[in-house]
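Design job #97: recover the sequence.
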């Protein structure tokens, strides 16, 4: 039997969600691979990484900007030694034509920062042999822009998340009322939540036993003040990914709104599968990825801007159906984003690029 081929990752920050989803999870999955072996290194471990390059088939650069020549020189060295240099990009951050859309979507006003960021991304992207990314929509954008091979490895679940989810389910105590959960991650989602804020506030005003828990960052309109003062809208700071599973398990529905455009169509479905594995149903906007991941009414609910009130009322008034949807979503996500099927996706992407 031939030896597994070697893929090497260069990453920036091991504490980031990006590292977990784009570097660690594929590496852990490949521990069971017969065809690929994966190792990952930080910039402080370049000597070790370089020593492995002569044996490598792939050098994969996790998303970062080329602030100096370090990454560019490493790419050149890998190619000289016969390894394919691959850039893993999980966001629409490489084509200057999309810069205005990114800034509108994130409420950013720092043009100089984003111009520099895009420039640094493009310095790497123009030198690599191909790309890894998270979904087909973003893959097509990359292919059209750079005319290089692109393969998809979806974001995924890992064993630590599953263990945390099992613990969260076992330790959950029955609660009264009906709890909505919004897990924002960063302030860039303010516009996304504003899309559904009127429907959410109407729902809370119509049902005295309903509450909204926000974990992360969010600003509300003045209309929400009375509900905030009554502690029917509560706020908690961001938590680590394992604690997040406990927070999601404690609510009755997970809200995942997006202002659907090319920028948000490039986002992954992680908000859906994070909720699914703690048996919490999701209502999501019909972005490219959510529409492909969620079967409306079967594994979750998809809601256009004018449908959020209806979908919230459905889950509120049909607890048995809500439970059925949650369990179907869990089954789907465990098959798709973990285990054998996920490993097959990783191996297939590596094979295509190598």
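Job complete. Output follows.
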């Amino acid at each position: 039997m031939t030896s597994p081929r070697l893929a090497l990752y260069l990453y920036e920050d091991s504490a980031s969600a990006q590292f977990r989803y784009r570097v660690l999870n594929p590496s852990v999955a490949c521990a069971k691979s017969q065809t690929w072996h994966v190792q990952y290194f930080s910039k402080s471990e370049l000597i070790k990484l370089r020593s492995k390059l002569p044996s490598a088939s792939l050098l994969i650069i996790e998303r970062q900007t080329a602030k100096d020549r370090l990454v560019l020189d490493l790419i050149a060295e890998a190619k000289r030694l016969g390894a394919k240099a691959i850039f893993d990009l999980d966001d629409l951050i490489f084509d200057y034509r999309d810069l205005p859309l990114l800034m509108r979507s994130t409420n950013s006003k720092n043009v100089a920062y984003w111009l520099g960021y895009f420039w640094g991304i493009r310095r790497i992207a123009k030198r690599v042999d191909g790309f890894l990314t998270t979904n087909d929509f973003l893959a097509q954008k990359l292919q059209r822009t750079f005319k290089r091979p692109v393969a998809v490895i979806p974001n995924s679940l890992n064993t630590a998340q599953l263990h945390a989810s099992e613990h969260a389910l076992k330790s959950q105590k029955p609660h009264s009322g009906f709890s909505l959960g919004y897990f924002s991650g960063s302030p860039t989602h303010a516009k996304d939540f504003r899309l559904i804020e009127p429907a959410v506030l109407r729902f809370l005003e119509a049902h005295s036993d309903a509450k909204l828990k926000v974990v992360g960052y969010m600003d509300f309109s003045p209309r929400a003040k009375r509900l905030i003062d009554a502690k029917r809208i509560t706020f908690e700071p961001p938590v680590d990914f394992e604690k997040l599973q406990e927070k999601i398990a404690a609510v009755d529905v997970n809200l995942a709104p997006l202002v659907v455009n090319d920028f948000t169509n490039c986002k992954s479905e992680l908000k859906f599968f994070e909720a699914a594995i703690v048996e919490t149903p999701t209502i999501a906007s019909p972005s490219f990825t959510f529409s492909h991941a969620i079967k409306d009414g079967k594994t979750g609910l998809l809601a256009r801007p004018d449908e959020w009130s209806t979908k919230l009322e459905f889950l509120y008034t049909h607890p048995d159906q809500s439970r059925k949807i949650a369990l179907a979503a869990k089954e789907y996500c465990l098959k798709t984003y973990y285990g054998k099927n996920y490993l097959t996706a990783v191996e297939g992407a590596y094979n295509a690029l190598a």
